[in-house]
Amino acid sequence: MDSWREKIIKSKNMKIKMHFVFIPLAVFAVAILGNWLTRGGMDWYETISLPAFTPPGSIIGAVWTTIFVLTAISAIIFWGKASRGRRFSWTVVFFILNGLINIFWSFLFFNRHLLGAAVFEAGVLDLSVIALIILIWPVSRLASILLMPYVAWTTFATYLTYVVWSLNR
Fold first, then answer.
1. How far apart are CA 19 and CA 23, in angstroms?
2. Angle, to 10 degrees, between the axis of helix 148-167 and the axis of helix 115-136?
3. pLDDT tens digit string along 57-112?
4. How far apart are CA 70 and CA 78, in angstroms?
5. CATH class of 4-167
6. DSSP secondary structure string, the chain?
7. Is residue 131 packed enough to be buried (19+ CB in 10 Å), middle (13-18) or exposed (0-12)?
8. Which of 34, 47, 54, 99 has CA atoms 20 to 30 A from the CA of 90?
9. Whole-angstrom distance, CA of residue 128 vs CA of residue 22
10. pTM for the full model?
11. Spatial separation of the C-alpha atoms in residues 146 and 161, rounded to whole Å
């Protein structure tokens, strides 16, 4: 039978490790919901005009998978290193908002076909990633750097969304 000290140590270790489960599950949920919304609009997407530089779906899927993995790792590193306080709380809020904004783009673009709104929303997504990078930098440069492919991709995606909107007005 464990002593009361061993029980406390075990419970603290379990509490610390929960972010290794919760964060990937949350990121996976964002990815699955975004994918579901995207798939729902693929018939429409295949009928619109796209610029020649539009990446094939397999590339887009691979990039997003990589971004989601890097985002989960970034969040796990941040969670493990950050002291609990105002910066921690704001960063968690921005991670949550970022996930919701990410999903909302798929809804606007693929389900509602609101291309102009999707351009604006993609810009907001860019800003949310930049905010995360800035908030995380003082806590972990590595965790911040892991988000840089995300902001690069969303910047490209914002431009691509703008061109698609321009071609289909």
1. 5
2. 170
3. 999 999 999 999 999 999 999 999 999 999 999 999 999 999 999 999 999 999 99
4. 12
5. mainly alpha
6. ---HHHHHHHHHHHHHHHHHHHHHHHHHHHHHHHHHHHHHTHHHHTTS---TTPPPHHHHHHHHHHHHHHHHHHHHHHHHHPPSSHHHHHHHHHHHHHHHHHHHHHIIIIIS--HHHHHHHHHHHHHHHHHHHHHHTTT-HHHHHTTHHHHHHHHHHHHHHHHHHHHT-
7. middle
8. 34
9. 21
10. 0.88
11. 24
Residue 71 identity (one-letter amino acid) = T
| Number of other CB atoms surrounding residue 40 within 10 Å | 13
Q: How far apart are CA 49 and CA 19, in angstroms?
A: 42
Residue type, 44: W
Give me 14's structure tokens.
Answer: 């379990």
**Contact assessment for residue 48 and residue 164, using Cβ atoms and an 8 Å cutoff:** yes
Backbone angles phi, psi at 113, to 5 degrees: 60, 35
User: Domain spans of the chain?
Assistant: 4-167
